[in-house]
Amino acid sequence: xxxxxxxxxxRNVADPQVGFTSTTRYCRPRPxxxxxxxxxxVSGPPAPERRPRQSLHPVLGxxxxxxxxxxxxxxxxxxxxxxxxxxxGVAVSSQYRSGxxxxxxxxxxxxxASRDSDRVSDELRAQTLARRERVEQKRxxxxxxxxxxxxxxxxxxxxxxxxxxxxxxxARLSANRWVLPLANYSLSARFGEVSWLxxxxxxxxxxxxxxxxxxxxxxxGTVTEASYDGSYGYKxxxxxxxxxxxxxxxxxxxxxxxxxxxxxxxxIGYVGTTGNVTGAHLHLEVRPGGGDPVDPFTALTQHxxxx
Length: 307
Hints:
By secondary structure, the chain is α+β, with helices and mostly antiparallel strands. Among the domains are: 1-45, no CATH class; 186-302, Glucose Permease (Domain IIA). Helices cover 34% and strands 18% of the residues. The chain contains 3 helices and 13 strands, in the order E-E-E-E-H-H-E-E-E-E-E-E-E-E-E-H. Residues 1-5, 7-24, 33-38 and 78-91 have low confidence and may be disordered.
């Protein structure tokens, strides 16, 4: 039911049902009172509802949809009132909806591809790190093995050097070691005694032993004389490295010749009675540097022996 308002501002309204132009303004009646002042009313169809114009170009619509999809901003077309885009419902054209759907699908695919790419990148990174860690572990293992090998070689070299040094020291000690010339003996004439038996004084130390007892070299040296020498009888002279001469006199026979290298304890002859003697014995003299004799008892004592 619509009410005609006489005298109101007239407006031509096209009536699609009647097919003529009406100069009557229609309005809806208000409850409890007449909206048109209680005058005559005329029924008629309602005025058509205005819809927003959708005259945007498809390309413009797609671009607008792209902006909306990427930024989340609602773009109001110029021919559309802002009231129609109220929070209760936003009117979007079919072009906008199509663009939104396309962009939403594209963003979904891009998001999925991005996640897959990130996952693959993480897996590759993890594999690379694991491979590097394995390489580092192998390298560290090789370095530890090499270090242990070097340490073993150094320790072995040190042991070899120690053994070599010990042998050298032993050789030096052995070379400098002195031993007693006889195993079983008794001492008779000492160094410095005076008697009619000697022209001035006794120049050595006499070891009384059985006839033919083996005489051993007191120290290491080289035989520089082995012959018969008057009152000394058969005599062997052993010259030490420092030039000291050891004389072994009154031998019954000689066991070494000139130039023979002898060591401590080696047999060089045998106890006898040759030369100026009163019985079988060994006359031992010690002459440093080949000069005047010194007391053999003192020399033997200085080398740790107790004649």
